[in-house]
Amino acid sequence: xxxxDVIIDSTWNMIYDLAVDESxxxxxxxxxxxxxxxxxxxxxxxxxxxxIFVRYGSLEIGNETNPFNGxxxxxxxxxxxx
Length: 82
What we know:
- The protein starts with 5 loop residues before the first strand and ends in a 6-residue tail after the last strand.
- It is mainly beta.
- The strands form two sheets. The protein has a four-stranded parallel β-sheet, with no helix packed on it. A three-stranded parallel β-sheet has the order 2-4-6, with no helix packed on it.
- The protein is globular.
- Helix content is about 0%, strand content about 45%.
């Protein structure tokens, strides 16, 4: 799925759980979040995308009552405006 655009629908509650080694990290094109994207707890995750748009939804990596107990990394690979 390298380079493909992904849209998380407003009715979705998606859990990101692709724990792969660093050399196999998938790179998404544009990731648009209209629903909810949560990182699976107790895992080491790396989300890589050209752009991430949190439109009408949320991106959650733990919260106050359930803190994230893993390693979470987000890398943006898109063009810079600078």
